[in-house]
Write a structure and sequence with these properties.
This is START-like domain-containing protein. This protein is of the alpha+beta class. The chain has 3 helices and 7 strands. Helix 1 packs across helix 2.
């Protein structure tokens, strides 16, 4: 059993779900903000490259304009990272929900890393 636990982050976004979805689900979109380079093979395995290191993640679930779930190839089966796009019923605002796994003592650092990446995403989409 993994020592990592699921944590969730939410970010309001000023853009349409369809535009946001492109940045979350395609190699070109993810390469704009998530990694330096992103490639996808025929089995829907994405290779994310940062500087001289790379990690592979399997696309395990995708719902158009709603959610994308990846599983790191080297991680335990129950761990994943996911992007969900929700609409606030009160404000009608688009909300990006990120679900990821980390050890309890690393959640704060991982959250800061996500926040840095999300700032880059928002800059790219003009939000």
């Amino acid at each position: 059993m993994s020592k990592k636990q699921l944590y969730t982050l939410e970010y309001p976004v000023r853009c349409s779900p369809s535009i946001l979805f492109e940045f979350l689900s395609t190699p070109a979109g993810l390469g704009e903000w998530f990694a330096d380079k992103v490639d996808e093979n025929k089995e829907h395995v994405f290779t994310f490259t940062w500087n001289d290191s790379s990690e592979k993640a399997q696309l395990v679930d995708m719902t158009e304009n709603k959610s994308v779930r990846f599983h790191w190839v080297d991680a335990p089966k129950e761990e994943y990272f996911e992007f969900e796009i929700e609409k606030s019923e009160v404000t009608n605002q688009t909300i990006l929900v990120i679900k990821d796994f980390a050890e309890k003592k690393e959640i704060k650092d991982q959250t800061q890393l996500w926040e840095y990446q999300i700032k880059d995403l928002f800059h790219r989409i003009g939000a």
